[in-house]
Amino acid sequence: MEYLDFGTIFFFVAAVVIFLQLRKVLGRRTGNERPPFNPYTRTAEVEDKAKPSDNVVSLPRRGEVKESSFEKVDAVAKPGTPLNDGLRAIQNADPSFEPAKFLDGSKMAYEMIVMSFADGDRKTLKSLLSREVFDGFVAAIADRESRGEKVQSSFVGINKADIIGAEMKGTESHVTVRIVSELISATLDKNGTVIDGDKEAVAEVKDVWTFARDTRSKDPNWKLVATEAED
């Protein structure tokens, strides 16, 4: 039997120790490791994904909305109903129209109009009302002021708001909203005596308002064109 010299044994032991340390640090292969990163392959994959499937993309012509894009209309009005047909007609004329966003805007406008009328704020009313409705509101304010009367109002909130009508009249879109709100309101005479309403009681108010906008206009704002109070 031949004996290994000391130097050979030393290097053999050192090799085993180094192997064990590397194994501890690097671990074992499990078969689930990620493949090594290849920048050229990755770039090619990104470029392939970025390529359109066709060379030509057809854009909808102005005034046309694809059938599949009426989801937001169908969410507020059942397909096949006159209301749904009216809302689709409006969206065809103005692809940016969204019933839910319109409803949110109408609720904000409702509060502004109610409070501006109570305060006699003609400037704010003029920007929110059609000419005919504005003239009617201003006449009522002037009549109230001529008698020295004032209105004290506090807007509590809107309990419910629904779109109940929609149609195109030429290039003008009309949307009718039924709003149920709560309001504290009292009319005082020139001596401060309450002659109508109540300064503390909360009253439920039901209104049916119609807003309109010319779809050809660059002005995105809608204006109140008709009002009706429900009993």
TrEMBL record:
Question: Where's the Tim44-like domain?
Answer: 83-229
| Cellular component annotations (GO), alphabetically ordered | membrane
Q: Where would you find the membrane-spanning parts of this chain?
A: 6-22
Query: Which Pfam families does the entry link to?
Result: Tim44
**Compartment(s) where it occurs, according to its Swiss-Prot or TrEMBL record:** Membrane
Q: Name one GO biological process term.
A: protein import into mitochondrial matrix
Give the family this protein belongs to, as stated in its UniProt record. Belongs to the Tim44 family.
- PANTHER family, per this entry? MITOCHONDRIAL IMPORT INNER MEMBRANE TRANSLOCASE SUBUNIT TIM44 (PTHR10721:SF1)
Name used for this protein in its record: Tim44 domain-containing protein
